[in-house]
From TrEMBL:
Gene3D superfamilies from the UniProt entry: Glycogen Phosphorylase B
Annotated signal peptide: none
InterPro entries linked: Glycosyltransferase_grp1
Protein's recorded name: Glycosyltransferase
One Gene Ontology term of the molecular function aspect: glycosyltransferase activity
Keywords: Plasmid
Pfam families cross-referenced by the UniProt entry: Glyco_trans_1_4 (PF13692)
Length: 365
């Protein structure tokens, strides 16, 4: 199938790295592994940080221009066999695909669509209505977490839904992992920006202050506009314990993970967190919170430890327990690696995606 791919939040071609961009790229690769031919239909960014009628009206005009452009192109070249929209939500609705899919009678598919009834006001309601209409129209809404599926089903009970577990490209994590040391090397990989990421950095710093009596070092991989605030959050901890390495290419991040012992990241508000899967692929157990979509990618007691949301003491205690038990770290790390390599790989995702397409999204006629 020829598939028009669109990510309204952040195009796969966007210059700024993020989990959204990474997942969009992996979905394209998974579709290719299925034998499909995905092409980016539009790079229009429909993201609105703040809600306003003026901003939404401007976005509608831009979307109309894209619809007209694609209509002309498809009239000459023929339409694709399906439209695939990744991650439409109230801040980044798909204002292009549903209209074109209806006009050209092709299946409309969403992945990681989400709906929050708390956003049904003002300009946000207009955007969310578009998300809801798209989910209702969709041949299938592919959900990555039970949390998202339940939210969509509650709002749109007559929609069609299928599950696809979060996944990563495991090729960087093949081969035999390096033997873990007894040095207690912690690592966290995350962008430095306001909001949930900053909340996680602050919680991590608070927890580490509670375990400063035991030996450890922390490698912090990431950068961003809140770098100064993140560094301030860790003020007071011994400088020799912290290794600020900045942003790195994926291949280098994999090497840094392989050279570490424990992945520590609270995960405040994480949709699921691809970095957790990457850490586990490198054979690291994870310490995180049992919040949002994190339990979809970390198995408590099997591949890591998940603590109650907001409980800094419990988070610190989980770090202390795993740092003090090398055998337990090794056991959880081995299970974590098998879990990701066997169940959460790009190949496994492609196989599941093909099943979904065969069941829901084959174009008739």
């Amino acid at each position: 199938m020829r598939i028009a791919f669109y990510a309204p939040l952040k195009s796969p071609d966007h210059p700024v790295p993020s989990g959204d961009r990474q997942m969009a790229r992996m979905l394209i690769e998974a579709l290719r592994l299925c034998g499909h031919e995905p092409q980016i239909a539009s790079t229009l960014r429909a993201f609105s940080r703040e809600a306003s009628d003026a901003a939404y009206s401007h976005l509608l005009r831009e979307a109309d221009e894209e619809i007209a452009r694609l209509r002309r192109m498809w009239a000459e070249e023929g339409p694709p066999d399906a439209w695939f929209c990744y991650h439409p939500y109230y801040k980044a609705p798909d204002l292009i695909g549903p209209a074109l899919a209806a006009e050209f009678s092709i299946p409309y598919v969403t992945a990681e669509s989400s709906y929050s009834s708390r956003r049904n006001e003002g300009a946000r309601k207009l955007a969310q209505d578009a998300v809801g209409d798209g989910a209702r129209q969709a041949a299938v809404n592919i959900c990555f977490t039970e949390r998202d599926r339940k939210g969509l089903e509650a709002a749109i009970p007559d929609g069609r839904y299928a599950m696809l577990a979060p996944f990563i490209d495991v090729r960087r994590f093949q081969g035999t992992p390096k033997a873990k040391s007894s040095d207690a090397r912690l690592i966290a990989v995350a962008m430095m920006r306001p909001g949930d990421k900053m909340d996680s950095y602050q919680m991590l710093a608070a927890a580490l202050r509670l375990v400063v009596d035991i030996p450890w070092t922390l490698t912090i991989v990431g950068d961003g506009p809140s770098r100064a605030e993140v560094q301030e959050a860790f003020a007071g901890l011994p400088a020799r314990r912290l290794d600020w390495v900045g942003e790195h290419a994926p291949e280098t991040v994999a090497n840094l993970l392989f050279g570490s012992d424990l992945y520590v990241w609270p995960g405040c508000g994480e949709a699921y967190g691809l970095s957790y899967l990457e850490a586990q692929a490198a054979g690291l157990p994870v310490v995180a919170q049992a919040t949002a979509g994190v339990p979809e990618v970390v198995r408590n007691g099997e591949t890591g430890a998940l603590t109650a949301a907001g409980d800094v003491d419990a988070f610190a205690e989980a770090i202390r327990r795993l740092l003090g038990d090398a055998a337990l770290r090794a056991e959880l790390g081995n299970r974590a690696r098998r879990f990701v390599l066997e169940e959460r790989s790009l190949t496994a995702a492609a196989e599941r995606l093909q099943v979904i397409f065969n069941a829901f999204a084959r174009r008739s006629g």
